[in-house]
Amino acid sequence: MPLDRIASIEAFSIRLPRDAAAVTGTAGSPTTLAAGGFDYRWSETNSTLYSLNFEAALVRVTLESGLAGWGEAQAPLAPDVACLIVEQLLRPAVEGQDFDGSPGAVRSLWNRMYSAMRVRGQTGGFMLDAIAGVDIALWDLAGKSRGTSVADLLSSSAPRSRIPCYLSGLPGATNAERVERAREAWGTGFRIFKLFYDRTEDELFDLIDRLREALGPDVSIAVDALWRLDETSARNFGKKLDERGALWLECPLAPESPAGHADLAAGIRTPIALGESYRTRYELAPFLASGCVRWLQPDIGRWGITEAAELARDTGAGARIVPHISIAMGPQIAAALQFAASSSNVGLAEYNPVVFTVANRYLDRPLEIDGAEYLVPDGPGLGVELDESAVRAVAGRVNVTRLS
User: What predicted TM-score, i.e. pTM, was given to this entire model?
Assistant: First the structure.
């Protein structure tokens, strides 16, 4: 392939107003938020900030030939930070570099971006989120320049065209309302549901029991504990999940606790799931070394395609991979699907219908779901194209300020 050169990188901070009450209990908005004077509010359940808005950081990389690729950093809060890193730290590292559209060229640029601040300790958090956004855009360019999908570039065999998905969260004020939502989803084909530990423990286990009674033995139920448990309560909590045959227990303990997760995994039968809090194999290394994680959940908007593909190769058959898809627009969802389609140990992906609908508003050609399966976009690159004029129209429109 002839050499091209990276001409420019742009970053777009997106904040879209939304009905916070309507999305509470779903991916990206799992808990009720405390009252306050900011658009960012403290969770009433777990010690975390959430946004009242739908927030994202989009990245556009353009070659001298005019070909452009889109990427996205996972940015449910403070997308301006990821965009500033792209503008001030990653542009100097990437703009002007030769680019031949090969996977090796993308990996080389990921290493270049990662090295830009690593000796200063910036090897996680917002820095890696920003790198992921640029990385996804580079993979989009690689596929477009070669006329093939990212999944084809990643895989040595024919990638899959459909990815099964699970429903992430059941909104509703009562357990009866949540069961009714599950019945509706069951009718469209969903058999796997993830519940958030967003209320009391008794309410959660009551909901699990109601779902079993309503949907029968074929339903699979996973639980996201939202990092709320400690090492004493987690084992009792896990044993209650054991009794109910839970699919996995997600994010049970503080993310800095590999030893605690290893002890918990040894004491319960329910598999441990985690991955969204991390960005690289280096951060996950102590968890992988102990073998305590049986479901890995990399968020491609934090990992990027390059590092997620390395994770999939490293883990082999040791753990199953389920991409985390929370607040996301089209490039991030499409990147997760291209990654999933190329990886033999990825058999499932997260799905949130509200997020999916918002993402499709800004795509020239919408992403599709058929029953409980994603259809992997089949065009070149990520297989989706953002409506650039629509993105530019909303970029920076909603400001996070103190309310009067």
Answer: 0.95
